[in-house]
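Researcher: Good morning. I'm working through a list of sequences from a screen, and I'd like to move beyond sequence-only analysis. For each chain I'm collecting a predicted structure so we can compare shapes side by side. This is the next one on the list. No need for commentary yet; just the structure.
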Amino acid sequence: MTPLRLDAPAKLNLSLRVVGRRPDGFHELESVMVLLELADQLLLMPGASGLRVEAPPGEPVPTGDANLAWRGLLAGLGAAPDLACLALRKQIPPAAGLGGGSSDAAAAWRLGRRWRGADEQATDADLAALATIGADVPFFAARVAAARVSGIGERVVPIAPPVAGLLAVLVHPPFRLRTADVFRELRASEWSPDGGPADPLEPGANDLLGPARRLRPEIDDLFRLVLAAGGVPHLTGSGPTVYALLDDAERAAAVARRLRRAGLRASETRLRREPASIEALTDNEEGA
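Model: Good morning. C-alpha coordinates for this chain:
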Protein backbone atom coordinates (compact mmCIF):
# COMPACT_ATOMS: atom_id res chain seq x y z
CA MET A 1 0.00 0.00 0.00
CA THR A 2 1.10 3.58 -0.68
CA PRO A 3 1.84 5.67 2.45
CA LEU A 4 -0.74 8.40 3.03
CA ARG A 5 -0.15 11.74 4.76
CA LEU A 6 -2.70 14.23 6.05
CA ASP A 7 -2.55 17.41 8.12
CA ALA A 8 -4.92 17.66 11.09
CA PRO A 9 -5.58 21.40 11.51
CA ALA A 10 -6.46 23.15 14.76
CA LYS A 11 -9.70 25.11 15.05
CA LEU A 12 -11.09 28.23 16.65
CA ASN A 13 -14.57 28.67 18.02
CA LEU A 14 -15.60 32.13 16.84
CA SER A 15 -18.73 31.73 18.95
CA LEU A 16 -19.98 29.04 21.29
CA ARG A 17 -23.43 28.94 22.84
CA VAL A 18 -24.90 26.34 25.15
CA VAL A 19 -28.62 26.19 24.32
CA GLY A 20 -29.87 23.15 26.24
CA ARG A 21 -29.14 19.79 27.76
CA ARG A 22 -30.21 16.34 26.61
CA PRO A 23 -31.63 13.66 28.91
CA ASP A 24 -28.33 11.76 28.56
CA GLY A 25 -26.51 14.73 30.11
CA PHE A 26 -24.83 16.04 26.94
CA HIS A 27 -25.18 19.77 26.31
CA GLU A 28 -26.71 21.10 23.10
CA LEU A 29 -24.35 23.58 21.47
CA GLU A 30 -24.36 26.14 18.69
CA SER A 31 -20.94 27.18 17.48
CA VAL A 32 -19.13 28.71 14.52
CA MET A 33 -15.82 26.95 13.90
CA VAL A 34 -12.97 27.72 11.54
CA LEU A 35 -9.80 25.83 10.65
CA LEU A 36 -6.28 27.12 11.28
CA GLU A 37 -3.05 26.47 9.45
CA LEU A 38 -1.54 25.27 12.73
CA ALA A 39 -1.77 21.50 12.39
CA ASP A 40 -0.62 18.08 13.54
CA GLN A 41 0.63 15.68 10.88
CA LEU A 42 -0.45 12.07 10.42
CA LEU A 43 1.18 9.39 8.28
CA LEU A 44 -0.41 6.01 7.63
CA MET A 45 2.03 3.52 6.14
CA PRO A 46 2.66 -0.19 5.74
CA GLY A 47 4.46 -1.80 8.65
CA ALA A 48 3.99 -3.30 12.08
CA SER A 49 0.52 -2.25 13.24
CA GLY A 50 0.46 0.37 15.97
CA LEU A 51 0.67 4.05 16.83
CA ARG A 52 3.86 6.09 16.92
CA VAL A 53 3.68 9.56 18.50
CA GLU A 54 6.17 12.42 18.32
CA ALA A 55 5.36 15.36 20.60
CA PRO A 56 7.20 18.43 21.96
CA PRO A 57 8.95 17.91 25.32
CA GLY A 58 6.68 18.28 28.32
CA GLU A 59 3.49 17.55 26.40
CA PRO A 60 2.59 13.91 27.05
CA VAL A 61 0.16 12.42 24.55
CA PRO A 62 -2.08 9.40 25.30
CA THR A 63 -1.20 6.19 23.51
CA GLY A 64 -3.12 3.10 22.48
CA ASP A 65 -6.90 3.11 22.83
CA ALA A 66 -6.77 6.33 24.85
CA ASN A 67 -5.42 8.21 21.84
CA LEU A 68 -8.16 9.80 19.72
CA ALA A 69 -6.17 9.40 16.50
CA TRP A 70 -6.00 5.64 17.09
CA ARG A 71 -9.73 5.51 17.82
CA GLY A 72 -10.41 7.47 14.63
CA LEU A 73 -8.27 5.07 12.61
CA LEU A 74 -10.13 2.05 13.98
CA ALA A 75 -13.43 3.70 13.07
CA GLY A 76 -12.21 4.50 9.57
CA LEU A 77 -10.85 1.02 8.92
CA GLY A 78 -13.78 -0.70 10.57
CA ALA A 79 -11.37 -3.04 12.38
CA ALA A 80 -7.91 -3.18 13.90
CA PRO A 81 -5.27 -2.38 11.27
CA ASP A 82 -3.53 -5.22 9.47
CA LEU A 83 0.12 -4.25 8.94
CA ALA A 84 -0.60 -0.51 8.99
CA CYS A 85 1.34 1.91 11.19
CA LEU A 86 -0.02 5.35 12.14
CA ALA A 87 2.58 8.00 12.91
CA LEU A 88 1.38 11.19 14.63
CA ARG A 89 3.48 14.34 14.92
CA LYS A 90 1.94 16.74 17.45
CA GLN A 91 2.11 20.52 16.98
CA ILE A 92 -1.23 21.53 18.52
CA PRO A 93 -1.07 21.89 22.33
CA PRO A 94 -3.34 19.38 24.10
CA ALA A 95 -6.28 20.37 26.32
CA ALA A 96 -6.11 23.89 24.91
CA GLY A 97 -9.50 24.40 23.23
CA LEU A 98 -7.91 24.07 19.78
CA GLY A 99 -9.36 20.65 18.97
CA GLY A 100 -6.05 18.87 18.42
CA GLY A 101 -7.13 15.42 19.55
CA SER A 102 -10.44 15.65 17.71
CA SER A 103 -8.73 16.78 14.53
CA ASP A 104 -6.31 13.86 14.81
CA ALA A 105 -9.27 11.48 15.16
CA ALA A 106 -11.00 12.89 12.08
CA ALA A 107 -7.79 12.85 10.02
CA ALA A 108 -7.06 9.26 11.01
CA TRP A 109 -10.66 8.32 10.16
CA ARG A 110 -10.20 9.80 6.69
CA LEU A 111 -6.88 8.00 6.25
CA GLY A 112 -8.43 4.71 7.33
CA ARG A 113 -11.28 5.15 4.86
CA ARG A 114 -8.88 5.91 2.01
CA TRP A 115 -6.66 2.99 3.05
CA ARG A 116 -9.50 0.50 2.58
CA GLY A 117 -10.83 2.18 -0.56
CA ALA A 118 -13.96 3.69 1.01
CA ASP A 119 -15.37 7.17 0.40
CA GLU A 120 -13.85 9.68 2.83
CA GLN A 121 -16.82 12.04 2.49
CA ALA A 122 -18.68 11.69 5.79
CA THR A 123 -22.42 11.03 5.75
CA ASP A 124 -24.80 12.28 8.44
CA ALA A 125 -24.63 8.83 10.00
CA ASP A 126 -20.83 8.96 9.98
CA LEU A 127 -20.86 12.36 11.70
CA ALA A 128 -23.25 11.11 14.37
CA ALA A 129 -21.00 8.11 15.02
CA LEU A 130 -17.86 10.27 15.13
CA ALA A 131 -19.48 12.58 17.69
CA THR A 132 -19.21 9.68 20.15
CA ILE A 133 -15.41 10.00 19.93
CA GLY A 134 -15.52 13.75 20.57
CA ALA A 135 -17.87 16.67 19.98
CA ASP A 136 -15.45 18.42 17.60
CA VAL A 137 -14.62 15.34 15.50
CA PRO A 138 -17.58 15.73 13.08
CA PHE A 139 -16.53 19.29 12.17
CA PHE A 140 -13.05 18.13 11.20
CA ALA A 141 -14.37 15.06 9.38
CA ALA A 142 -16.83 17.15 7.33
CA ARG A 143 -13.93 18.55 5.24
CA VAL A 144 -14.95 22.22 5.43
CA ALA A 145 -12.96 25.30 6.39
CA ALA A 146 -15.80 26.95 8.33
CA ALA A 147 -19.16 25.77 9.58
CA ARG A 148 -22.03 26.24 11.98
CA VAL A 149 -21.97 23.27 14.32
CA SER A 150 -24.90 22.29 16.53
CA GLY A 151 -26.42 19.45 18.52
CA ILE A 152 -23.62 17.67 20.36
CA GLY A 153 -21.37 18.41 17.39
CA GLU A 154 -22.95 16.05 14.86
CA ARG A 155 -24.78 18.70 12.81
CA VAL A 156 -22.32 20.55 10.56
CA VAL A 157 -23.52 23.20 8.11
CA PRO A 158 -20.75 24.68 5.92
CA ILE A 159 -20.49 28.46 5.62
CA ALA A 160 -18.33 30.68 3.42
CA PRO A 161 -14.66 30.43 4.43
CA PRO A 162 -12.84 33.35 6.07
CA VAL A 163 -11.44 36.11 3.91
CA ALA A 164 -7.94 35.52 2.61
CA GLY A 165 -5.13 36.67 4.86
CA LEU A 166 -6.99 36.65 8.18
CA LEU A 167 -4.56 35.84 10.97
CA ALA A 168 -4.90 34.63 14.54
CA VAL A 169 -2.50 35.38 17.36
CA LEU A 170 -2.74 32.54 19.86
CA VAL A 171 -1.77 32.82 23.52
CA HIS A 172 -0.82 29.42 24.95
CA PRO A 173 -1.07 29.44 28.77
CA PRO A 174 1.23 27.20 30.86
CA PHE A 175 -1.81 25.32 32.17
CA ARG A 176 -4.59 23.16 30.72
CA LEU A 177 -8.34 22.96 31.09
CA ARG A 178 -10.26 19.72 30.72
CA THR A 179 -13.47 20.21 28.76
CA ALA A 180 -15.40 17.99 31.17
CA ASP A 181 -14.32 20.15 34.12
CA VAL A 182 -15.44 23.34 32.38
CA PHE A 183 -18.87 21.89 31.58
CA ARG A 184 -19.26 20.70 35.17
CA GLU A 185 -18.58 24.28 36.30
CA LEU A 186 -21.06 25.74 33.79
CA ARG A 187 -24.24 27.16 35.33
CA ALA A 188 -27.62 26.97 33.64
CA SER A 189 -27.90 30.76 34.04
CA GLU A 190 -24.93 31.08 31.67
CA TRP A 191 -26.65 29.31 28.78
CA SER A 192 -27.75 31.30 25.74
CA PRO A 193 -31.30 31.09 24.33
CA ASP A 194 -30.24 30.55 20.68
CA GLY A 195 -29.05 32.39 17.59
CA GLY A 196 -25.66 33.60 16.49
CA PRO A 197 -23.94 36.82 15.49
CA ALA A 198 -25.15 38.68 12.40
CA ASP A 199 -21.78 37.95 10.80
CA PRO A 200 -20.96 34.32 11.67
CA LEU A 201 -17.24 34.95 11.12
CA GLU A 202 -17.19 37.86 13.56
CA PRO A 203 -16.02 36.61 16.98
CA GLY A 204 -18.89 36.58 19.44
CA ALA A 205 -19.90 35.14 22.80
CA ASN A 206 -18.51 32.00 24.38
CA ASP A 207 -20.73 30.62 27.14
CA LEU A 208 -17.79 28.62 28.50
CA LEU A 209 -15.77 31.73 29.31
CA GLY A 210 -17.39 32.21 32.73
CA PRO A 211 -16.72 28.68 34.03
CA ALA A 212 -13.23 28.67 32.49
CA ARG A 213 -12.43 31.92 34.33
CA ARG A 214 -13.67 30.52 37.62
CA LEU A 215 -11.49 27.45 37.23
CA ARG A 216 -8.51 29.48 36.01
CA PRO A 217 -8.69 33.16 37.10
CA GLU A 218 -5.39 33.66 35.24
CA ILE A 219 -7.45 33.88 32.04
CA ASP A 220 -8.46 37.40 33.14
CA ASP A 221 -4.77 38.35 33.14
CA LEU A 222 -4.37 36.93 29.64
CA PHE A 223 -7.28 39.02 28.39
CA ARG A 224 -5.78 42.18 29.88
CA LEU A 225 -2.37 41.47 28.35
CA VAL A 226 -3.86 40.81 24.89
CA LEU A 227 -5.76 44.11 25.08
CA ALA A 228 -2.60 45.92 26.16
CA ALA A 229 -0.73 44.34 23.23
CA GLY A 230 -3.27 45.70 20.74
CA GLY A 231 -5.57 42.73 20.18
CA VAL A 232 -9.18 41.94 21.07
CA PRO A 233 -9.13 38.77 23.21
CA HIS A 234 -11.46 35.79 22.87
CA LEU A 235 -11.50 32.29 24.36
CA THR A 236 -11.67 29.33 22.01
CA GLY A 237 -13.72 26.30 23.04
CA SER A 238 -13.37 25.45 26.70
CA GLY A 239 -9.97 27.16 26.75
CA PRO A 240 -7.54 27.99 27.99
CA THR A 241 -6.13 29.29 24.66
CA VAL A 242 -6.92 32.96 24.11
CA TYR A 243 -6.82 34.40 20.61
CA ALA A 244 -7.07 37.68 18.71
CA LEU A 245 -7.97 37.97 15.02
CA LEU A 246 -6.16 40.49 12.84
CA ASP A 247 -6.20 41.24 9.13
CA ASP A 248 -2.70 42.70 8.91
CA ALA A 249 0.44 40.57 9.15
CA GLU A 250 2.64 43.34 10.56
CA ARG A 251 0.12 44.18 13.25
CA ALA A 252 -0.29 40.50 14.13
CA ALA A 253 3.48 40.13 14.45
CA ALA A 254 3.64 43.22 16.65
CA VAL A 255 0.90 41.93 18.95
CA ALA A 256 2.67 38.56 19.26
CA ARG A 257 6.01 40.27 20.04
CA ARG A 258 4.45 42.37 22.79
CA LEU A 259 2.88 39.28 24.31
CA ARG A 260 6.19 37.43 24.26
CA ARG A 261 7.90 40.41 25.91
CA ALA A 262 5.24 40.14 28.62
CA GLY A 263 6.43 36.59 29.26
CA LEU A 264 3.68 34.73 27.40
CA ARG A 265 3.97 31.97 24.84
CA ALA A 266 2.33 33.37 21.71
CA SER A 267 2.19 32.16 18.12
CA GLU A 268 0.79 33.37 14.82
CA THR A 269 -1.18 31.35 12.30
CA ARG A 270 -3.61 31.94 9.46
CA LEU A 271 -7.21 30.86 9.11
CA ARG A 272 -7.54 28.20 6.42
CA ARG A 273 -9.79 28.73 3.43
CA GLU A 274 -10.00 25.04 2.58
CA PRO A 275 -9.56 21.75 4.42
CA ALA A 276 -6.46 19.59 4.17
CA SER A 277 -6.18 16.94 1.47
CA ILE A 278 -4.69 13.46 1.69
CA GLU A 279 -1.31 13.06 -0.04
CA ALA A 280 -0.12 9.75 -1.46
CA LEU A 281 3.66 9.63 -0.89
CA THR A 282 6.49 8.28 -2.95
CA ASP A 283 9.36 6.38 -1.31
CA ASN A 284 11.46 9.57 -1.26
CA GLU A 285 8.74 11.61 0.43
CA GLU A 286 7.90 9.14 3.18
CA GLY A 287 10.61 10.31 5.53
CA ALA A 288 10.14 14.00 4.80
